[in-house]
Specification:
The chain has a 5-stranded antiparallel beta sheet with strand order 1-2-4-5-3, sandwiched between helices. A 5-stranded antiparallel beta sheet has the order 6-7-9-10-8, sandwiched between helices. It contains 17 helices and 12 strands. The longest helix has 31 residues. It has 3 domains: 127 residues, no CATH class; 115 residues, no CATH class; 171 residues, no CATH class. Helix content is 45%, strand content 11%. It comes from Paenibacillus aestuarii. This is Spore germination protein.
Length: 499
């Protein structure tokens, strides 16, 4: 059997055993431990996917995880060179630049787990990177779809996400820091910022918070933000997570910091404001007047989805005098067969809408669409005919549900839907007073939130009218000359063009 065949097809005794005894030695993570073949094998005992290849003809041992390697990289850098070499030429081959000599066991173990191939030759150990696991191809984002503009989105592989950003930001000022999170998973976290634009206080604060995380595993970017939130008990998201490459790059250029977690398609940015969750890339890919109108529509949808159902409950329970006489007759006739108070009626229908929404999200796409449309029509019509609810309430609940879908951020939309239940209960118990109290509590809570130690309600609190040109409206590009004040960038000017 040739050396090339031995590398690919030979199997060690350890791989053929079904029962592998536990080691009798105590493993050490001391970085000063001299790397050795036996110490490495002991660390990976009982790992079926671990591969150990022995090449006695040239006195070389190879150690790696096959599913982490790319076939082309392995063939080019390992299989072919060692299959066409004599024993006395191995030392000269290993002097090439892509073979890195390792002097401590901790670096060796981490290198193997990161997709490297460990090469043991005589008393020396070398490591070569051949990492190229199978990954999802770059596709369109399903949660942040746009009509115009780029359609590529991030994937679960961090190196691919970095390449997507590097392709758009071709500057040496784009800096990338690498951290590690998770005591067991040891997931890589990459911190990205543009030197000269970002305020380094934000970078240092984000790095500090990530380094302070002490958990076994962090699987997704949306899970990571819950460990570094300024107020983890708040319903509102404090760190926007995006799957779109263009959104991430625009936030980088605006002076914000990005965090990419390996294994997650969501890229986190910080700091952020409440109003940032109501903007969409579509706003910048169409005429500024259309973008302004669309953004205004989203804020109207926010008010509708928060207050419409609760206002119906308040008015029909306590404040009939607010209803015009002609409409009052219609509402009275519609509610004449309903045996429940408006608060129970509204909560019942809101819960039913959430059940349909959740069922549609969990089922396959085609079935989910059918459940959402047919289920809503059938259940709504049947509830009215059976006397469980009124026609007016169906309109109110449906309008609130539709308005919640207008908000671009799914996380913010989910938070607002949950708040709606609290406002319905307050409106059903205290009327308009309870509704106003609920809205006041929300505003007070938002005013006290911070994102990376900056005000969450920027640019309303503290007030900054200049930033309103890119918050409540989408001003023409020639008018957007400065970066957001929240970024506290040392280089505020970003647009030198005149009208």
């Amino acid at each position: 059997m040739s050396i090339l065949q031995r590398i690919f097809f030979s199997r060690t005794k350890k791989e053929n055993e079904f029962t592998i005894p536990l080691p009798n030695i105590e493993l050490s993570n001391d970085s000063a431990t001299v790397p050795s073949l036996q110490h490495t094998l002991d660390n990976f005992i009982n790992c079926y996917d671990f591969v150990h290849r022995n090449l006695p003809e040239i006195n070389v041992d190879l150690v790696y995880f096959g599913h982490l390697l790319g076939n082309d990289e392995f063939t080019r850098d390992i299989a072919t060179p060692f299959a066409n070499i004599q024993a006395n030429e191995v030392g000269l081959l290993l002097q090439r630049s892509h073979y890195h000599q390792i002097f401590d066991s901790k670096s060796l173990i981490k290198g193997i787990l990161d997709g490297g191939v460990a090469i043991f030759h005589q008393e020396n150990v070398y490591l070569i990177n051949a990492y190229k696991p199978d990954s999802r191809t770059v596709q369109q984002s399903e949660t942040e779809s746009v009509i115009t503009g780029p359609h590529d989105s991030f994937v679960e592989t961090a190196v691919i996400n970095l390449s997507l950003i590097r392709r758009r930001v071709k500057s040496s000022h784009l800096k990338v820091l690498k951290l590690e999170v998770g005591e067991v998973t040891k997931s890589d976290v990459y911190i990205l910022y543009i030197d000269g634009i970002v305020n380094m206080e934000y970078v240092n604060e984000l790095v500090k918070r990530i380094r302070s995380i002490e958990v076994d595993a962090v699987h997704d970017g949306n899970m990571l933000v819950q460990y570094i939130d300024d107020c983890p008990n708040s319903l509102f998201p404090l760190f926007p997570a995006s799957e779109r490459t263009d959104s991430a790059v625009s936030r980088l250029v605006a002076g914000r910091v990005l965090a990419i977690l390996d294994g997650s398609p969501s890229v986190i940015s910080a700091p952020a404001s409440f109003f940032e969750f109501f903007s969409s890339p579509d706003d910048y890919y169409q005429r500024w007047a259309l973008g302004t109108a669309t953004r205004a529509l989203r804020f109207i949808a926010f008010l509708v989805t928060v207050t419409f159902t609760s206002l119906y409950v308040s008015v029909t329970t306590y404040h009939y005098e607010m209803i015009p006489e002609t409409l009052l007759l219609t509402i009275t006739e519609s509610r004449s067969r309903v045996p429940f108070p408006p608060i129970y009626e509204a909560l019942l229908m809101e819960i039913m809408i959430e059940l349909l929404r959740e069922a549609g999200a969990r089922l396959p796409t085609k079935i989910g669409q059918t459940i959402g449309i047919v289920g809503g029509i059938v259940i709504g019509q049947a509830a009215v005919q059976a006397g469980f609810t009124s026609n007016i309430l169906i309109i109110a609940v449906a309008s609130s549900a539709i308005a919640s879908f207008v908000i671009p951020s799914y996380i913010m939309s989910a938070s607002i839907r949950l708040i709606r239940f609290g406002l319905i209960i307050l409106a059903g118990t205290l009327g308009n007073l309870g509704l106003m109290m609920g809205i006041a509590i929300i505003i007070i809570h938002l005013s006290g939130l911070t994102s990376l130690n900056t005000s969450y309600l920027t640019p309303v609190s503290p007030m900054n009218f200049k930033d309103w040109r890119d918050v409540f409206v989408r001003a023409p590009f020639w008018a957007l000359k400065e970066r957001p004040a929240q970024s506290k960038s040392p280089n505020q000017l970003r647009n030198k063009m005149k009208k």
